Amino acid sequence: MSLVAMPFYQKRHKNFDQSYRNIQTRYLLDEYAAKKRASTQTSSQRSVTQKSSSQRGSSQTAQEGTTCRLCARKVSTALEEDEQERRHRYQSLVASYAEAKRERFLGELAQLEEEVHLARTHARDKLERYALQHVDRHGLQHAVDDTLAWERHFLEEQLSRAPRILVPLQSHTIWEQMSVKLCFTVQGFPTPVVQWYKDGSLICQAEEPGKYRIESKYGVHTLDINRADFDDTATYSAVATNVHGQASTNAAVVVRRFRGDEEPFYSVGLPISLPLSSVIPYTHFDVQFLEKFGVTFRTEGETLALKCTLLVTPELKRVQPQAQWYRDDVLLKESQWTKMFFGGGQASLSFSHLNKDDEGLYTLRIVSRGGVHDHSAFLFVRDADPLVTGAPGAPMDLQCHDVNRDYVIVTWKPPNMTKESPVIGYFIDRCEVGTDSWVQCNDRPVKICKYPVTGLFEGKSYIFRVRAVNNVGISRPSRVSEAVAALDPLDLKPLQAVHWEGDKEILIYQEDLEGEVQLPGPPTNVHASEISRAYVVLSWDPPAPRGKEPLMYFIEKSVVGSGSWQRVNANMAVRSPRYAVFDLAEGKPYVFRVLSANKHGLSDPSEITAPVQAQDTIVVPSAPGRVVASRNTRTSVVVQWDPPKHKEDLLGYYVDCCVAGSTVWEPCNHKPIGYNRFVVHGLTTGEQYIFRVKAVNAVGTSENSQESDVIEVQATLTVPSHPYGINLLNCDGHSMTLGWKMPKFRGDSPILGYYVDKREAHHQNWHEVNVSPVQERILTVEGLAEGSLYEFRITATNLVGIGPPSDPSELFKCEAWTAPEPGPAYDLMFCEVRDTSLVLLWKAPVYSGSSPVSGYFVDYKEEDSGEWITFNEAPTAHRYLKVCNLHQGKTYIFRVRAVNESGVGKPSDTSEMVLVEARPGTKEISVGVDEKGDIYLSFDCQEMADTSRFTWCKSYEDIAGDERFKIETVGDHSKLYFKNLDKVDLGTYSVSVSDTDGVSSSFVLDEEELKRLVALSNEIKNPTIPLKSELAYGISDKGQVRFWLQAEHLSPDASYRFIVNDGEVTDSETHRIKCDKSTGLIEMVIDEFTIKNEGTYTVQIQDGKAKNQSSLVLIGDAFKAVLEEAEFQRKEFLRKQGPHFAEYLHWDVTEDCEVRLVCKVANTKKETVFKWLKDDALYEPERSPDLEKGVCELLLPKLSKKDRGEYKATLKDERGQDVSILEIADKVYEDMILAISRVCGPSASPLKVVCTAEEIRLQCFMQYFSEEMKVNWYRNDAKIASSEHMRVGGSEEMAWLRIWEPTEKDKGKYTFEIFDGKNNHQRSLDLSAFDEALAEFQRLKSAAFAEKNCGKVLGGLPDVVTIMEGKTLNLACTVFGNPDPDVVWFKNDKVIELSDHFVVKVEQSKYVSVTIKGVTSEDSGKYSMHVKNKYGGEKIDVTVSVYKHGEQIPDVVLPQQAKPKLIAASTPSTTQ
């Protein structure tokens, strides 16, 4: 129903112009009339034909008996003439009926137009009355304006107007036998003609009288469906057409059959939620999928069909279940890209041209009353090869939004980039429908996946595509979008209801009430609807009033604060109420305003917008969280991750994978997925992978998430099945030895062990025998009661867990075995089952009887046969036997009996039944010699499971770990190599593959085969030319690189080639090649070795049939090392052409512990200048260097931290210069200290004890000491840490240990140790005889204490005093003592007697003064003051000189501070 589903101008891809609309309208009217005539004619012909047939039949019956053939022929001719006459008469009736119907239709149309005209006249009158009522309030001028406006409206109403749907159709769901009415409202001038369609077919009332009733009244059109049945379920459409265009509307009618209670339908385990069908077939169908489509991998541009073969029961031709196809959670419909088919037991979905848009999870749902049956599988669509290597993949999922007259927004999703450089932007192309001309819409690549396309032409249809751009090139274009027409979908002018005659209303346009408006008003609600760094989209509402003329808009912008406005679209008018503004300065805020315009002029500007700044409102999302990969199948892995913290407007996720150990990342999906769980398919079984995830939005992709843990691709593990075949192997009366067979299913994981449970007969509870699992399938159960009956059960465990227990064994009686014959063999196994033979393996009995086992008999019988047959007449000493001459296709069972000297023992339990028949595709071991001459046995197995392993045996004993063999297994292929094949290797070799259906084979290596293989190996290995040395390289002192190889022997006819990077190199000036065939030496010399010489070097030699070659790879770090060495040697050679250092600056330590910097110079002369520098400053040594000696030295005595720095030695003359640098810091400085320690360590003196009043000091003298040396002090072998009590230190000449306030506890052996980097130098002293040192310390301490606390004169007295007679002399000073001292004054060594003349004062026991009142000449003399307590004291002398009044003052030396003198503690004193 193309004319209803979408407008004809879109479907037929024609331009929407006036002429085409007229043509299309005429086409529709003609088509309508033709269908009506055809339907009427068909029904009339059918009735006339039936009537004539009945008349002919009755006539023939009546005349059959009496009319002859001639008469009958005449009657027939007459009837034919009557028939032709009736046909002509019928055609005339049809024509007259059609003409009458047409006239009636035109009459009805004219009547409707008259009614509309009358209604509008009444509305006009009412408006005039309304205007007159408001004359007093608004003035006569307003009334006149209103009247003129109505006249203008009335005249314009006569102009053309295309149909417009005012009220669309509504969908309905009803029950059977109910009626339904569909109605809609349309308006247009002339009055549109309406046609009704059912699923695209025109509805004709005459075809089904009474079924449909079509009515039209006042623009409201109705379709009544009477007593609907199930077949009336369809999409109904109405198309309204006049000479100016058409409009359509549609709705769905669903007719449901009454089924009682409604049964819900559920989705069945899909990873995404699918909607339920609204239409479900009534019939109950059972659906089975016979063949299903699987996970599919394709490339863009290919074709594909997803198919499922179905068995649908019951099989009805006219009724089938409903088939639905979904991609992810979207129901698919047929399009130009996809076609669907369902029928004949097959459902298919075909793709004519795959794109990445088609990638996703595809689900086929078969819906019926029987329920929902579905199947899902993922379709992966890879990028097609780019047009330019390294270019990005194509964008996808192109969508068009917000379509308008000249504007559309295009969105898309970015491609996944793993190996290519990042996408820097996108180009958007448009193409007018009906043409092949693509036009690029943007000049510069846009960085986000969204772009507003402007400049469209109204009424034309367009398609779009997008191309991605990176630094390498441009991608292939995306899939084109659906066609869109440049029309405003909201172009319905607003209507207003006006009351007319009571309850009636009439709808008129809002613009009709505006009056006569020429200039439009300004737009309103101007705002920025979308903001990005590249553009800003402005939106606004049309102006009110807007006028009747076509509108256009102009946009102006202004930088905030500038005060000036700039027209944005000066050269292009905008017809849509939105516009994208580009080229805005980054970081600057703008304001905008919009002006309306028509043919009469511009409106006033709109209100300005709020300040807008061009910036990205969304940012790249943050990286997803933790990524967890888990097993799924043998070729797939489930990857889950945490969503990113910042997930603004996410489009989905991309998942990448990488083989562990590689750096090459591959995309897992090529279209963003919207959920955080993804199943990655197409992986290699057994390979290890790492996964990462990226989040995607319109701005781009996030950073990669953290990588997942390494996971090996294997099937999901399960617990093993139960063991079986429990048998008793030995019993000694208090213990039993059990054996059993391994589970048939291991759960794709190796068996880790077994648990055994026991219980006595008639007991219900089981008791575990072993707490830890046992590895072997044999176990001795201890602690049993003799004579009791026991039963056992066994469970197996693997990585997943513990499997189900086995069935309980039979009851075993605990009684000792005493028979002389051996017990039963056990663990019977089969291998190498062929059409007439097999190999039986077993294990030796646990109970050997009275003598060792000497052999075994093997018995067999066919299934259900009663007689055992012994295969071997003589017992075999091996624990394996090949049983031959069996019948193909027969089933056998086996048992084994052990033999010793006492006879044949108890038979083993019977084996499992085995069908003697070779499996299809059975392969045998092959023997061969590879290209290296190595001899091997090879075996392939195509049926390996994830846990399958190859086991190679010799004589059916495992040879893994044997030094004579080497086993190499890759995938499903395994080889056994003989390292040195010899006669000891003769025998039977076998291989078996675990976790398969008995895949195994054997090979007998006899002496003849051994000789053949050895000869073939020697023949392959010998034709090589033996080499004395492989290709190697050397670097000369001139920087030349020499490649050379030497063969054992070369004949004169030998030839050779040098291959560098796959290209042959010949002898030239750059590559000098020569060969000495007498010595077998081949060499190539490259004088200038540069970065261009990186690569692989190969020498190929041929001497007759013998060949050999040797390669040397110089790539990466290896090449860099050679290049650096060559450049170094070349520079060294050039350096040595002038003055240079023969030996670069180095250092050593002299015997005097001085650091000496030494360098040797060469090729110097008198003009050569030598300088020492430290930290780039000239350093002047004490002695100038003597260049003639060739050795320059710089001494650093008493090395300390101040000597650290960069030391340079420079040589320079006209021939060139050379520099040698030595930096003394960090490691070099530490090495120097250690070297000094090696010299000073042996010179260390014995430890010496020095006592003071405060400490006992241990001293060690040496040539030089620094606290930076690695020294340690020990007391009684315990290391001493420096503390307040024991302080470690030293000076330049000695190291010391100070023991503050020593006590008896400090006795012991003291050791001083100095480490020189290699050896420890120690000096020890035993302070066990500590009394003398302690007594000396205490004596000195007491003396110091007495000295500290004895009486003292602290100052204040002069040594000489001169005073005039009659004056008063006052001498004062300060004293100290603990306890307080006694103070005595003397004159001329006699104690002064105190009186009024001599007054002595002592205040606070420390301030002492003597006052002599009225000094006379007799007072002249020497005065002394003694200050003393029990610890002793001091005396001080003062000379007093008195002169008389009038005498000349004697010349005396200026007085000085009197110096006190000590007084012994024993000196008696008189206390004052």
Describe the structure.
This protein has 1472 residues and is mainly beta. 14% of the residues lie in helices and 40% in strands. The chain is built from nine helices and 98 strands. The strands form 25 sheets. Strands 90, 92, 93, 96, 97 and 98 form a six-stranded mixed beta sheet that branches. A five-stranded mixed beta sheet has the order 2-9-8-4-5. A hairpin with a 5-residue loop joins strand 38 and strand 39. It starts with a helix and ends in a 9-residue tail after the last strand.
SSE topology sketch:
Layout: H1 2-5, H2 8-11, H3 18-63, H4 69-133, H5 135-157, E1 161-167, E2 172-175, E3 180-189, E4 193-198, E5 201-202, E6 212-217, E7 220-225, E8 234-242, E9 245-256, E10 286-291, E11 296-299, E12 304-313, E13 322-327, E14 330-331, E15 338-343, E16 346-351, E17 360-368, E18 371-382, E19 396-401, E20 407-413, E21 425-432, E22 438-440, E23 450-454, E24 461-469, E25 484-485, E26 495-500, E27 504-509, E28 524-531, E29 535-541, E30 552-559, E31 566-567, E32 578-582, E33 589-598, E34 601-602, E35 612-613, E36 627-631, E37 637-641, E38 650-659, E39 665-667, E40 677-680, E41 688-697, E42 711-712, E43 724-731, E44 736-741, E45 753-760, E46 767-768, E47 778-781, E48 789-797, E49 812-813, E50 826-831, E51 838-843, E52 855-862, E53 869-870, E54 880-883, E55 891-900, E56 903-904, E57 914-915, E58 926-929, E59 935-940, E60 950-954, E61 957-958, E62 965-970, E63 973-978, E64 987-993, E65 1000-1005, H6 1007-1021, E66 1027-1035, E67 1041-1047, E68 1055-1060, E69 1063-1065, E70 1071-1076, E71 1081-1086, E72 1095-1103, E73 1106-1114, H7 1117-1135, ...
Parallel strand pairs: 2-9, 11-18, 90-97
Antiparallel strand pairs: 1-3, 3-7, 4-5, 4-8, 6-7, 8-9, 10-12, 12-16, 13-14, 13-17, 15-16, 17-18, 19-20, 20-23, 21-22, 21-24, 24-25, 26-27, 28-29, 29-32, 30-31, 30-33, 33-34, 33-35, 36-37, 37-40, 38-39, 38-41, 41-42, 43-44, 44-47, 45-46, 45-48, 48-49, 50-51, 51-54, 52-53, 52-55, 55-56, 55-57, ...
Helix pairs in contact: 3-4, 4-5
